Amino acid sequence: MEIKRAFLDHFKHLDHMEVPSSSLVPVDSSLLFTNAGMVQFKDIFLGKTKPFTKRATSAQLCMRAGGKHNDLENVGYTNRHHTLFEMLGNFSFFDYFKEEAIAYAFSFVQKLGFKQQDIYVSVHEKDTQAYELWQKFVRPDHIKKMGDKDNFWQMADTGPCGYCSEIYIDQGDRYFHSSEDYFGGEGDRFLEIWNLVFMQYDRSEQGVLNPLSQPCIDTGMGLERVQALLEGVHNNFDSSLFKPLMASIANVFDLNYNDHLESFRVLADHARSVAFLLAMGVYFENTGRGYVLRRILRRALRHGYLLELSKGKELDTPFFHKILGDLCDSMPDYPLLKEHQESIQAECRVEEELFLATLNKGMHLFESALQECSGSSFSGAVAFKLYDTYGFPLDLTMDMLRDKQMHVDMAEYQACMQEQKQRSMHSFKQTNAKDGLKALDLSALEPNEFVGYDYDEVRAKVVALYMGVDRKAYVVLDRTPFYAQGGGPIGDRGAILDTNHVLLAQVLDTQKVGGINASLIELESRASLEVGDEVIAQVFDRAEIAKHHSATHLLHLALREILGAVARQEHKNAQIQQKGSHIEPHRLRFDFSFYRNLEDTEIAQIEAFVNDKICAGASTAIESMGAECAKSSGAVMLFEDKYLEQVRVVEIAGSLEACGGVHVSNSAHIGGFAVIKSASVSAGVRRLEAVCGKAYYDFVAKERAVLKEARQRLKNPDLLKALEQKEQQGTKSKGANACLEALKLYPIAHKKLQLAVLLAQKQDLNTFFAFVDQYKKNQEPLVAIFKHHNAQKHALDVVLKSVGAHDMLALLEVLKTHVQSLGYTTKGGGKKDHASLSISKKDQAEWGAQEIQALAQELCQVALKSLES
């Protein structure tokens, strides 16, 4: 049975709408990851959004690593925990409640083939209604009342919550007979497969449970657990869902799964998490989601280290990206993985190489410190050094100690951490103001109104002010024209004026924290600002930022069109995806996925494409619409856009993207576009930097000035022709230099002549002449003999250079006559200022070095007499 499809079809027959899985990156700022099927419906549960259907069902990818729900440290050590899993769920929005939810669930459990005598349920000790309803389906002794710990569910510290009822399957006592293997115990015999949440409360920040205006149903069944149960295996990792991954790991390490259960299971679980997070736009970083991703990968790499160590080797080669490749190939139901496979593997490999550079050293430090431990406590200072110097997250060190029943001295670790924080000067009252913003508590403020789409200058009231040092502060206005950094454009800059237009402060940056736009300001020397003040807020450089932002959209379109076609021709991945952007008033930077560096001709095509769109003078259309509508319209959407209820879609000159930033009203306002730099960011990721608007005209003016100076220096208005001449001269000079390096020089001293005997193989005579010119320069008259090798003959070439008014053709005849009298064959010619003579033996025999020197001395004497006469 295909469990997922059977579940969705079961509820579709009960009038539920099938809803696709939302991103692992939730819109909800209170959550690190999507950790339950109900996350995408949270605003419906809270009554903030009208339900689009009364009943829904989904198969939701969930992540439980970091945040309130964190199973990371359990993965590999238990039969049932995962960082990433699929939750099958059904939902009722103000429609049915407990009675139908229980009946629908029991019906499907029976459909799966579980026997009634193996089904157990738990209910909240205060939920008498659920207790009574369950007795219609299971025996009373199979129903257990439990407290808040087990039967009260909440997604986060605040928000929707309620009593819940859990369904368990008894796996029998054949394999499970520990003291904890009873219903309600900590053993695995009674395995929970489904949680039915009766959502009827909203928990406030003060912990008060307020009844929801209308109760809802939220259920979640773990696909991996049910798959293992139906296949008769007692560990999720032994089911068919994980077999392809286990085979991949065994192949990569040439080891057997059964000999290394924990490490194989950790690698399999973490491969799924890393792949899906990368596919959904999470990057390796030192904070937030990116740090959780980094922790997961580094935990996996440590188990790769253990597997190599079991073979007596150290881990020195990236391996995890290979497993990710096999994962993408083995999960055809998730086209997202295949679509992003190249970038997933490339980004993972870069991160692997980063950690592998320190992993072995860190492990040696850990083992060394372990030998010095006398009890169960591990040095907090060493744990901090592993974190700070070698990149070992604390939970990784704790995981390594777990096997040895040891723990980190957390007091010592925290002391080291505090000392480092003081050294780093991370607080707001230091130089790093942006980090200081993160430390501010803005939770008491209402989100302020952003009016920057319509106004560059507005009157506003100061609602919050956070002073720092050097007259810097963060200010929050009740309505603000300042756009907060996000989606590429930098945060707006500008000025705060009083109502008489006197400057109070410069606005240096604007950032968003929890839905609030806060601006970093620097107060003028004699100015003051207080909460409640009426001020005028002015935006600077808005027009130039808008130009570069709109140009970024056209660049993205050009890349998809031009490089997409190139990739298809070269049989590569044609999906060109945005990997990052940064937009300033004077330039833009755009990172995108592509498998190689760009050719100059491709960059020229991209520039021409964008400039054609600019010249078309297309008007910009901006519309707010539902996410599904935007997606079906073909709008390019980032992952965080795809799951918003409403998205702002910008259309300009054929580009259609979900975007929250400011834009020009017509493509012609961009003015012009030029790429100024092309580079590689990392494996599979390229970067283009470009200018438009005023910066474009400045760039063109600078280029023209450079060209003008080049014409003046070359003294030729035709630059290409001048460059060709320079190249020809350079080739000749280069050839002479090469000849100089290749020839063996034997200078023969003489008071009035220089004689150089030069030996080389297969050198062109013209190149030799060039060498002679370079060798002679401003020196005395020169006679040079060149030993020339070729397949037909062995010859000596004598080169004669003019000396004042002397006739070289006359000297040539003198030397020719003398050489012929010695029994050699000659031929030669030239001009009055230079000539050459080729000398060969009649038997075409090779010339020896001593023969050449003797002949050279003799020819030197003859030439001298002739020149002196």
What does this entry look like structurally?
The protein is 38% helix and 25% strand. Residues 424-433 and 738-746 have low confidence and may be disordered. The radius of gyration is 39 Å and the shape is extended. Helix 8 (261-279) crosses helix 10 (320-330), helix 10 crosses helix 12 (341-371) and helix 24 packs across helix 25. It is of the alpha+beta class and 869 residues long. The strands form 7 sheets. Strands 1, 2, 3, 4, 5, 6, 7, 8 and 9 form a 9-stranded mixed sheet that branches. It has a 6-stranded antiparallel barrel with strand order 13-14-18-17-16-19. The chain has 25 helices and 32 strands. The protein has 6 domains: 3-236, BirA Bifunctional Protein, domain 2; 243-361, no CATH class; 372-421, no CATH class; 433-540, Elongation Factor Tu (Ef-tu), domain 3, CATH 2.40.30; 545-704, Threonyl-tRNA Synthetase, Chain A, domain 2 (2-Layer Sandwich), CATH 3.30.980.10; 731-868, Roll (Diaminopimelate Epimerase, Chain A, domain 1), CATH 3.10.310. A hairpin with a 2-residue loop joins strand 23 and strand 24.
Q: How is this fold's topology laid out?
A:
Blueprint: H1 3-12, E1 17-18, H2 42-45, E2 55-63, E3 84-93, H3 98-111, E4 119-124, H4 128-134, E5 143-146, H5 148-151, E6 152-154, E7 159-170, E8 190-203, E9 209-222, H6 223-230, H7 243-253, H8 261-279, H9 288-309, H10 320-330, H11 335-339, H12 341-371, E10 377-378, H13 380-388, H14 394-402, E11 407-408, H15 410-424, H16 433-439, E12 449-450, E13 457-467, E14 472-477, E15 479-480, E16 493-497, E17 503-513, E18 516-523, E19 534-540, H17 542-569, E20 578-583, E21 588-593, H18 600-615, E22 621-626, H19 627-632, H20 639-642, E23 646-652, E24 655-658, E25 673-682, E26 685-692, H21 693-714, H22 719-742, E27 744-748, E28 754-759, H23 765-776, E29 782-789, E30 794-801, H24 808-821, E31 825-830, E32 834-840, H25 849-868
Parallel strand pairs: 1-2, 4-5, 10-11, 12-15, 28-29
Antiparallel strand pairs: 2-3, 3-9, 4-7, 6-7, 7-8, 8-9, 13-14, 13-19, 14-18, 16-17, 16-19, 17-18, 20-21, 21-26, 22-23, 23-24, 25-26, 27-28, 29-30, 30-32, 31-32
Helix pairs in contact: 3-4, 7-8, 7-10, 8-9, 8-10, 8-12, 9-12, 10-12, 13-15, 17-18, 22-23, 24-25
GO biological process, one term: negative regulation of DNA-templated transcription
InterPro entries: aa-tRNA-synth_II/BPL/LPL, Ala-tRNA-lgiase_IIc, Ala-tRNA-ligase_IIc_anticod-bd, Ala-tRNA-synth_IIc_core, Ala-tRNA-synth_IIc_N, Ala-tRNA_ligase, Ala_tRNA_ligase_euk/bac, Thr/Ala-tRNA-synth_IIc_edit
Enzyme class: ligase
